Amino acid sequence: MRFCRRNGRVDELVAMIQTESEREKRKALCSEVQKIVTEELPYVPLWYVDVVSAHRRGMQVELTPTGDYDFLIK
Known about the structure:
Helix content: 40-55%
Largest sheet: none
Number of domains: 1
Number of helices: 2
Order of helices and strands: HH
Structural class: mainly alpha
């Protein structure tokens, strides 16, 4: 199942980038692609939620605002 939406202009620009031999023109085309993607992409996930379960008697858990698991290595 695909969740991405195609953008004809981006496809066109990428094709032009692949054939353009002048560096400055390629840079300008790449900048245009980056601008379009930045404006249209709703978000880019940098991490995902991982479910961790641990149990031990006497284990003390210190929850932090960052949600790290540093308490597991003490």
